Structures are given as C-alpha cells and as structure tokens.
Amino acid sequence: MKKISNLFALLGLVLITACSSTQSLQEYYVDNSDNPNFLKFDVPTSVLNLSAAELTESQRKAMQSFKKLNVLAFKKTVDNAVEYTAEKKVVKNILKNDNFNELMKLNFGAGNASVQYLGDDDAIDEVVIYGSSDDKGFALIRILGDDMNPAQLVELLKAVQKSDYKGEGLEQIVDFLK
Questions:
Q1: Each residue of 136-169: pLDDT tens digit?
Q2: Which of 15, 53, 141, 165 satisfies CB 3.0 to 4.6 Å to 129 for a cystine?
Q3: Long-range contacts of residues 84-93, Cβ cutoff 8 Å, at least 24 apart
Q4: 136, 177 contact by CB (below 8 A)
Q5: pTM above 0.85, yes or no
Q6: pLDDT averaged over every residue in the chain
Q7: Domain boundaries, the chain
C-alpha cells in the first residue's frame, strides 16, 4: 500500500513539474493563433524579392540561413486592457528564459522594445523582436533561420535594401495596430 501511495505522490510531482514549466515562445504563438485579440501571420523569404536583386556571395549565404518571419501582435483596446496586461506579463516571462540572449533594449516615447536571440553567438537559430506600447499593444516578431550570425543579419538587411521589397506582408501589422 505504501508503494502505491509513493507512486501516486511521484506521479503528482511529475505532473506538477510538467505543468509548471515555462511555456515556449512557439507554444505561445500556437496557443494564441485563434484568439481574436491577436493577429498572427508568417512572412516567407520569397516575399522579400531577393532573388531578383544582385547579391554578393555573403548576402546570398545570409539569405540561405534565413527561413521566415513569424509575427504575433496583440491590439490593446478599452475592452481587453486586463487581458493585455496578463498577456504582456506572460510574454515577458517567456523572454526571461535563460535560453534567450539579449542583444539590445530600446526605449522610445510611446513604448519599448527588445531584441533577443536563441542559439550561440555565431550560430543563431532565432531572433526575437518584442515591442510594446501601453496605448497600442505589443508585437512579437520571430526571425527564424539556420546558424545565422550577427554579420549575416547585417548582410541580410543590406540585401533587403538592394531589393525592391517595400514591406509587403507587413502591412497587416501596421493596420492592425492603428
């Protein structure tokens, strides 16, 4: 009988531990994909129109390491102010995870932003840009890739400047947060 009660105690401890683990950013995206307060969309690399641009070898390599952008935005309204505060807290807790390395923080008049990454300094798999404004809401942008490095991200930005990309695919977030 004692063995059975110990087994149940162990099982309970395992369940509590599993349930209290920190949610991943990917899980957060999936969990909120049907929430009407959120706008969620993906931007594939093809939308950047980089195939037509004349790229250097390092810019081509940077482009090959980049997969896509995931965007999740919460528009704050008078009716969802309490949920906004709760969701903002959840996101901040996820981003406090030791796996994220902070690149920079920005404060601007209407809000603040941070840029963090997952992976090693020379092999970044994901860059996360989080920006929030207590008036408008918040946005999470995930830049997904394979073994990106900071120099490649700079090369990718240069390549985007060479292309005829005009922000197609991102208008949704601007319109959503208006």
A1: 999 999 988 888 877 777 777 677 666 666 655 5
A2: 141
A3: 84/37, 84/137, 84/138, 87/32, 87/37, 87/138, 88/132, 88/138, 90/23, 90/28, 91/28, 91/130, 91/138, 91/140, 93/22
A4: yes
A5: no
A6: 78
A7: 23-177
